[in-house]
Amino acid sequence: MKIVSIVGARPQFIKAAPVIKALREANHQNFLIHTGQHYDYGMSRVFFEELGIPEPDVNLGVGSGTHGWQTGEMLIRIEEILLKENADCVLVYGDTNTTLAGALSVVKLRIPLAHVEAGLRSFNREMPEEHNRILTDHCSDLLFCPTETAVKNLEKESFANIVNEGKLITSPHSLSLTPYSSPLALNVGDTMYDAILQFTEIAYQYSTILKDLGLEPKTYLVATVHRPYNTDIPEKLHDILAAFLEIGEPIIFPVHPRTRKKISELNDKLNISTGASNVKMIDPIGYKDMLILEQNARMILTDSGGMQKEAYFFGVPCITLRPETEWTETVGAGWNVLTGADTERIVKSVRSVWPLKDRPAIYGDGRAANKIVTLLDERY
Question: Which domains does the chain have, with CATH numbers?
Answer without folding.
Answer: 2-190+364-379 (3.40.50.2000), 197-352 (3.40.50.2000)
